[in-house]
Amino acid sequence: MVRRFISGLLLLAVGIVSPALANGTMDEMTAAISRGDFKDITSVLVMKNGDIVYERYFGNGKPDYLNNTRSATKSITSMAVGAAIEQGAFTGVDDPVMPLFHVYDPIKNLNDDKKDIRLKDLLTMSSALDCNDNDQTTPGYEDKMHEKQDWTRFALDLPTMPGWSRDGMGLGPFRYCTVGTFLTGQAIEMAVGQSLDDFVDAALFTPLGISKYEWYRSPIGEEQAGGGLELTSRDLMKFGQLALEDGVWHGRRLLPEGWIAASTKPHRKVSETQSYGYQWWIGEFFSATTGLVHKSYYMAGNGGSKVAVFEDMGLVVVITAERYNTPGMHQQSNDLLQRYILPAYEVGAVH
């Protein structure tokens, strides 16, 4: 598999599709995107069993184009936590977070709920911090942090959610909180004793062969672990394949054994169709042709970008899109998956 994967990366030119796998369904998708039926799509890549079997670029997209991943970055931050655990910087997801930031003493609003925040709370979007990106009135609303110079100080000083409590699973209620993911990145820095950029580069990017990337940063240079990391489409695909291989890359273990299974387990129910793991979304997609339902875990970002992993088919799909802050941006990516990609790569249909 490793040999086939490497050859696919080296030999597949822009716009080339494996002849054995190209079919009317994928041709129809290419045509639909090209004529503008799907807006602001920049790339679609499909990898099956370690081989790139479809690769097309549209609009601004090209192989060396740095896609703004927006919140898809969060899943990479989850992998960075796993890498830090693998290297011994954390003992596990139950490690408390606030003691790592002793150099920021005093931390405001430091009540018992805040003192008890653990990595798992931040990873599952269920911490006590009063933060909800779907509610602009909350103190931790993402844009309020962006207005500040020191984002770490902002995150640490947030008050806790009134009435917050843990349920029978030991977690609080789900509230989408980018500030919490940013704080996770800073917790990694404190634990490993180096910048998030340097740690992720050594622990993940260099082993994966990723050399071209750009972090979104605060005015004082803090890496935004919660969004905005820029990567090429092929490099995004590597993270999907790393997840599919349980954290092993070309025979080298980068993440703890079982980390991906724990990360992609539904820890919080978000809606009737979506759950949340450790910074990964979990859901189901159906084939419009066969009606078969395929479980997936996936990275997702504002604009419609998605990296979806389908373990039942050995499939990794990358869709990058720039339809930012637009209703339906995620649905059109789902439509590409369900109307074209899954029917073309149904279980048993491709060998």
Automatic annotation (TrEMBL):
Question: What Pfam family does this protein match (any one)?
Answer: Beta-lactamase
InterPro entries in alphabetical order: Beta-lactam-related, Beta-lactam/transpept-like, Diverse_Enzym_Activities
Supply the alphabetized keyword list. Answer: Hydrolase, Signal
Q: Name one GO molecular function term.
A: hydrolase activity
Entry-linked Gene3D superfamilies: DD-peptidase/beta-lactamase superfamily (3.40.710.10)
Q: Does the keyword Coiled coil apply?
A: no
Keyword Amino-acid biosynthesis assigned to the entry: answer is no
The residues forming the signal peptide are 1-22
Indicate the segments annotated as coiled coil, or none if absent. none
Provide the E.C. number(s) assigned to this enzyme. 3.-.-.-
At the top level, the lineage of the source is: Bacteria
The residue ranges of the Beta-lactamase-related domain are: 43-334
User: Which PANTHER family does UniProt cross-reference here?
Assistant: BETA-LACTAMASE-RELATED, BETA-LACTAMASE-RELATED DOMAIN-CONTAINING PROTEIN
Q: What is this protein's record name?
A: Serine hydrolase domain-containing protein
